[in-house]
Amino acid sequence: MFNPDASIQELPLFDGHVVLVIDNALLAPERWLDWAKQAQAQGLFQHGQNNAYPGVELPMPEQVCSALDAFFVRFGRQRLGARRTLQLYSRLALVTLQPDQLQPRQWLCHRDRLDLPADQCAVASVLYLFQDSSLGGTNFFRPRKPITEVERMVHDSGHLSASEFSARYDIAPGYMNESNSWFERVLNVEPRWNRLLFYRGELFHSSHIPHPELLSADPARGRLCLNGFFSCRRGLRV
């Protein structure tokens, strides 16, 4: 399923954080695309009920989660300061919403799994399963203001109307592709067919959507990704 001889590079961010970029991650990525097409034809992709993902998703079976976790152990766990995986959720996903369909909380970069105990950490992964690089990769951001102010702004993004939120925080509707007064974009990782990223979940990040007019719910044309979300025992970054 995953390629034991995949190539890996570390891209630096800030404060010792890195993004792990692994090319040729899958042995037969075209089979995953075929699987997604079949699932889409059967209506199995659905909008998530408990997250702000701007599109449709399909949870993966335990077999996929186990294989992804084994790949993470081999290539990413120690480098990202994680130890044993405690929980793992993975999905196939397609960004589908147009900018004018987004809620304020979808105008922002975000972090994953902040509700973990102090002895645990979150790691996320994204695997690009599309050929068209104009569909966009992944952005990473650093806050420009105190984290307490940022957290208040993020909280309000889920409770204020679009007009109230935009006026209060001077944030325009749409996908977040560049720096603004709240966040500095420190890295854009370009997409590549069969490229996988691992990174710590507490980092602010977002999908890079430079051409939303190209988004599609058709896996053959859309921004198809395999996402993974790990909860791990906390270790030391190397």
Automatic annotation (TrEMBL):
Under InterPro entries, the record lists: DUF6445
What is the recorded name of this protein?
A: Uncharacterized protein
Q: Which organism is it from?
A: Pseudomarimonas arenosa
Source taxonomy: Bacteria, Pseudomonadati, Pseudomonadota, Gammaproteobacteria, Lysobacterales
